[in-house]
């Protein structure tokens, strides 16, 4: 399977998970969203602590696409979803809320956690 195909499958699985949530008026759209490996980006000092980084249409990963966990892809796709509904407020929020307790970051962590297929309560 090619990296592009693996990325498409991973994004589809993450979308399926996010589609179970009703946090925004419309479900996440995958049109033009790409999932790419970019280990060089995570050598930059301000990105060293991350395994993934989302922009409006691109999700960049530290490691190979084939090795990305479904939770990581779901987390990053949640950021894309957030930006689809709050295109300026979401990215700018990191300037005044920081990272750890940023409401969008907390929401993306929660999205990955509560949609995990192995969650004990079946959610």
What attributes does this structure have?
123 residues; mainly alpha; 4 helices
How would you portray this structure in words?
The protein is mostly helical and 123 residues long. The protein has one domain. Helix content is 43%, strand content 9%. Strands 1-3-2 form a 3-stranded mixed beta sheet. A hairpin with a 3-residue loop joins strand 2 and strand 3. Helix 1 packs across helix 2 and helix 2 packs across helix 4. It is globular. The chain starts with a helix and ends in a 9-residue tail after the last helix.
Please give the alpha-carbon distance between the first and last residues.
30 Å
Strand order of the largest sheet: 1-3-2
Largest sheet: 3 strands, mixed
General shape: globular
Determine the strand fraction and express it as a percent band: 5-15%
**What count of domains describes the coordinates?**
1
- The topology string of helices and strands comes to HEEEHHH
- Gyration radius over CA: 14 Å
Q: State the helical fraction.
A: 40-55%
Our count of helices gives 4
Question: What is the tally of beta strands?
Answer: 3
- Structural class by sheet pairing and helices: mainly alpha
Low-confidence stretches: none
Mean pLDDT: 95
């Amino acid at each position: 399977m090619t990296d592009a195909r693996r990325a498409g499958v991973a994004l589809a699985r993450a979308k399926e998970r996010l589609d179970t949530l009703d946090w925004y008026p419309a479900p996440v759209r995958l049109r033009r969203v790409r999932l790419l490996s970019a280990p060089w980006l995570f050598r930059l000092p301000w990105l060293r602590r991350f395994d993934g980084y989302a922009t409006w249409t691109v999700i960049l990963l530290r490691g190979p696409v084939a090795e990305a966990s479904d939770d990581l892809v779901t987390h990053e796709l949640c950021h894309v979803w957030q930006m689809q509904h709050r295109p300026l407020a979401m990215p700018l929020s990191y300037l005044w809320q920081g990272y750890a307790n940023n409401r969008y970051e907390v929401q993306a962590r929660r999205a990955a956690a509560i949609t995990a297929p192995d969650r004990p309560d079946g959610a």
